[in-house]
Amino acid sequence: MVKPPPERPLEGLITIHSEISPMASTEYEPGRPSDEEVTMTRMLDKVIRRSDAVDKESLCIQAGQRVWHLRLTIHCLADAGNLLDCACLAGIVAFKHFRRPEVEVVGDEVTIHHPSERAPVPLSMHHTPFCLTFAYFPDTSTPPVLDPTHLEQRLSAGLLSVALNAQRELCVVQKAGGVPLDPDEILRVVDVAVIKAKELDKIVEERLKEDFAGRNIEVQ
Amino acid sequence: MSELVLPGEQIHAQHVNLKLGPGLLQLSNVGQDGFIISTRAGELKHSANNSKWWIESNSRRYIPASQESVVGVVIARSGENWRVDIGSAHAANLDGLAFEGATKRNRPNLKVGSVLYARVSLAHKDMEPELECFDAQTRKAEGFGELKGGFLVRCSLKMSRLLLDPTHFLLPLLGSRFPLEAATGLNGRVWVNAKDTRHIIAISRCIEAVDPDGGGLDESGVKKLLGTMDI
């Protein structure tokens, strides 16, 4: 819980920390952010923070004085290609899974209830964006590949990342250089991404439901 | 006769000439006999006469050990030495003169990105590993040195040990179909080369299929897989 900045007294704060350590692969060096790391940090910021996936106003406890500060840290354990999609998925599911302590505000008094006293409360999310990356190859007869492996990523000429939610709302389209594409191709790719996003959404919802079914504790 | 052990379990191994293999460590306490603990999770195995004990485990991360042959990729040059990536936590150091017949005037012409077959000469957990490109006893190349062309395949550590086993079926089976060259490193990397690109892809797919991590196909499975490929 922190004091909010004066220009936004009614919103909580979210910070995302993602650093690819050499644990993910021997290609990454500590201290020096590689190109991929910079892209990943920027995309994570856009997909999770700037797309307003989490309702920041619900994080406010007392206007101008106390708000929740959520800190998301992503540790990359192994790089098998397409770290970006994986990190975005992990971040979004972490927010959906997280439960924060319940807070009661009576006048000026703020009481934080420990999770053992009152059941913790989920974060209020506006929508669930998923990031999907397509790899394009220098040989134009090869179709684009969704979710490239390490080798496919290394050999690709360009990557197109599309972030959208299951309600067909586009959050981010990122294409930094690479192979030139015409608009029809991008629309086609977005259609494929919509199908995949719906599938992912179903899988995520099912698994979260299963997980919570196993977490009911009865207090005698 | 094999039991599964977890790291930190005490192993009761007694023999006059006890030799501890990978995964076992002897801790010594003052005044009493040292006791042996396991440092990896896996199956505990021992030789018939109980003199050699070791742990069979599989992983993808390489921990350098002395006198092991590895395939490395040159990542940088620091003065006269080369920094080589062998998949371990630290980049390894290769002296520019650690080749057969190398003198100050006559050095091998390596570049960043070259693939090498080298032997780990020094490996301690707190220091950077060091490599040499010649055999320890004969001081001759014996296959070590730069590997030109070809393709690098990644596999698990157990797969690379299987490939180095002369009785394993995969490489002779592939060799009977088409000529190939292979250099297997104990760090989970295999360098393969063949004349036709499709043969190289076939070898790489077969290695991934036979890998215990990726399915563990047996000989008949590999023959079927080769039948589906266009070679």
UniProtKB/TrEMBL annotation, chain A:
Domain Exoribonuclease phosphorolytic stretches: 6-101, 128-194
UniProt cross-references to InterPro entries, sorted A to Z: ExoRNase_PH_dom1 (IPR001247), ExoRNase_PH_dom2 (IPR015847), ExoRNase_PH_dom2_sf (IPR036345), Exosome_comp_Rrp42_subfam (IPR050590), PNPase/RNase_PH_dom_sf (IPR027408), Ribosomal_Su5_D2-typ_SF (IPR020568), Rrp45 (IPR033100)
Superkingdom classification of source: Eukaryota
The entry's keywords: Cytoplasm, Nucleus, RNA-binding
Keyword RNA-binding assigned: yes
Primary location group: cytoplasm
Cell compartments where the protein resides: Cytoplasm; Nucleus
Keyword RNA-binding carried by entry: yes
Family listed: Belongs to the RNase PH family.
PANTHER family associated with the record: EXOSOME COMPLEX COMPONENT RRP45 (PTHR11097:SF14), EXOSOME COMPLEX EXONUCLEASE RIBOSOMAL RNA PROCESSING PROTEIN (PTHR11097)
Protein's UniProt name: Exosome complex component RRP45
Lineage of origin: Eukaryota, Fungi, Dikarya, Basidiomycota, Agaricomycotina
TrEMBL record, chain B:
Domain K Homology, residue spans: 150-197
Keyword Nucleus found: yes
Record Pfam families: KH_6 (PF15985), Rrp40_N (PF18311), RRP40_S1 (PF21262)
Alphabetical UniProt keywords: Cytoplasm, Exosome, Nucleus, RNA-binding, rRNA processing
Compartments reported by the entry: Cytoplasm; Nucleus, Nucleolus
Domain Exosome complex exonuclease Rrp40 N-terminal positions: 18-61
Predominant place of localization: cytoplasm
CDD domains according to UniProt: KH-I_Rrp40 (cd22526), S1_Rrp40 (cd05790)
Key word rRNA processing present: yes
UniProt similarity note: Belongs to the RRP40 family.
Record's protein name: Ribosomal RNA-processing protein 40
Species in which this protein is naturally found: Somion occarium
